Amino acid sequence: MELRPISESWHSVESWLRDRERIRELAPPATSKEIARVEEHLGMNLHPDHTQLLQGHNGSGSFTLPPRYVVLSTSEVVDEWRIMTDVWAGHPHSPYRPHWVPFASDRAGGVLYLDGSQPRARIGAHDKEGASLLSPHSMWASLPSLMHHTADALESGHILDRYRRPGDDDFLLWEVFPDASSN
């Protein structure tokens, strides 16, 4: 399957939100200066996929990626990274590494991150106890894959790894659809 670029996936998400009069949920794009500040605070370059995500929108407001992750703004990336590195610093069996850069949060202590040390960054997840609960679904293979599958599920209405696209309510959260097989 050919993955669309992150910018095209953002356009599909924008279109879906616009049709529901919810486009205002998304923040404007991050500036080069904002991205440079993140890299300075982290002491490393962001993965190019993460940069593309932020160049689309510097945060997702109340719109979530499946199942319930908001895209972090540049300042939130720094805050989440500091929290994760501070919490696990010096822990002899730390399940978190400083080169893991969060790009989304479930707002309950869990983050999705990219491994900044890898050229093709697979998405990782880290909950507040250090566990990862990602399924083997192909959407987790990369950030372009997650954005592509998210945009496709919004457009088509298909179930995405047992999640149904958000309804038109106030929260824009993905719904668990337990009887669906992963597709």
What does this structure look like?
It is a single chain. By secondary structure, the chain is α+β, with helices and mostly antiparallel strands. The chain has a single domain (6-157), classed as SMI1/KNR4-like (3-Layer(aba) Sandwich), CATH 3.40.1580.10. 34% of the residues lie in helices and 11% in strands. The protein contains 5 helices and 6 strands. Helix 1 (6-19) packs parallel to helix 5 and helix 2 (32-42) runs parallel beside helix 4. The longest helix is centred in the middle third of the chain and has 15 residues, at 74-88. It is globular and about 45 Å long. The model has no long low-confidence stretch (mean pLDDT 87).
Task: Summarize this entry quickly.
The protein is of the alpha+beta class.
Per DSSP E runs of 2 or more residues, the count of β-strands stands at 6
How many discrete domains? 1
Distance between the termini: 13 Å
What Rg do the Cα atoms give? Answer: 16 Å
Q: Output mean pLDDT.
A: 87
CATH architecture: 3-Layer(aba) Sandwich
Q: What is the CATH C level class, in words?
A: Alpha Beta
Strand order of the largest sheet: 1-2-3-4
Biggest beta sheet attributes: 4 strands, antiparallel
Structural category is alpha+beta
How many H/I helices?
Answer: 5
Oligomer: single chain
Report the order of strands and helices.
HHHEHEEEHEE
Strand content: 5-15%
CATH topology: SMI1/KNR4-like
What is the H level of CATH, i.e. the homologous superfamily?
SMI1/KNR4-like
In percent, how helical is the residue content?
25-40%
Q: What's the overall geometry? A: globular
